[in-house]
Amino acid sequence: MKRIALLTSGGDAPGMNAAVRSVVRVGYVKGVEVVGVYHGYQGLLTKDFHIMLPRDVSGILERGGTILKTSRDIAFKEEKNQWKAIENMKEEGIDGLIVIGGNGSQTGNLSLFKKGFPTIGIASTIDNDLWGTDYTIGFDTAVNTAINAIDKIRDTAESHNLTFIVEVMGRNAGFIAIDAGIAGGADIILVPEIKFSVEKIVDNIKRDMEKRKLHYIIVCAEGAIHARDLEKEIHKYVDIDTRVAVLGHIQRGGSPSRFDRMLASELGERAVNALLEGEKGKVVGIKHNRIVLIPVQDAVMNKKQLNTKLYKLAEELSV
Ligand code: F6P
Fold first, then answer.
1. Across all residues in the chain, what is the average pLDDT?
2. Which of 79, 105, 129, 138 shows the smallest number of beta carbons within 10 Å?
3. Which ranges of the chain does DSSP label H, i.e. alpha helix?
4. What is the pTM of this model?
């Protein structure tokens, strides 16, 4: 394998740049030419190809976002576009592809692999919802951003005796909510995976207020309920002073944490080596502190389960 393509796809995540840097530099050391594809899968169709050398990735390790740009490309779901992408890569002498991204992005990886093109994915999404890997690039930074925000919000909640509803990202998964909730000391955590009742939440608030809890923090994943909707629901049952904070895209940006930089550097290296060893149709991730190759089919078809023990712990800690 002499020439490989590299793209980032789906939602950007802090640490994607560190992974790009790792692939480009390890590729260079191993004598492989790395072609950066701009704008995700779209760039495979428009041939937005750029040869990348070690100095092209200087000064990006500490930067959030992705210098390769990214997109959520619906058009790539069409088979004819997938064949076109393969044709475009073959025309340029590209014989392998590395895809940095989450679930949707690795579904693109799977379709190219099924058509016979060698692909390797690198697990990256702030949501951490990719099966087969304990962590995805970007999750750690996103959670730390959310914790910092909750710490600040707590100052105001405490000073004014307020109930705050903090909405974090996670359309289909509660990984950010559960970690940020526990580490941020939330009183209630709501995730899409676990059913909840507003009446029970209100009962808890009332019970806790009797125990002289004068401020309250609820962390909800956007996929469980939107903070504004929850606020309206709560007010149907109880007249308390509430505020809402929707953290939104601040969780996607910013300089990656030490963990994400390390993870991205290691996964980037493993992805290049995997292609060179003839591996294909896999995603590189981390399991029990070891870098692993996960069949892409399994990664995208299975649902990663939330650790319910953590949910129980959250309840215990909010006594
Ligand atoms: O996939 C990461 C993520 O940040 C989700 O948590 C969130 O629901 C979604 O992307 C938001 O996507 P967009 O920026 O395209 O609205």
1. 97
2. 79
3. 16-29, 41-46, 79-91, 103-114, 139-160, 175-183, 198-210, 227-237, 258-276, 296-301, 308-317
4. 0.97
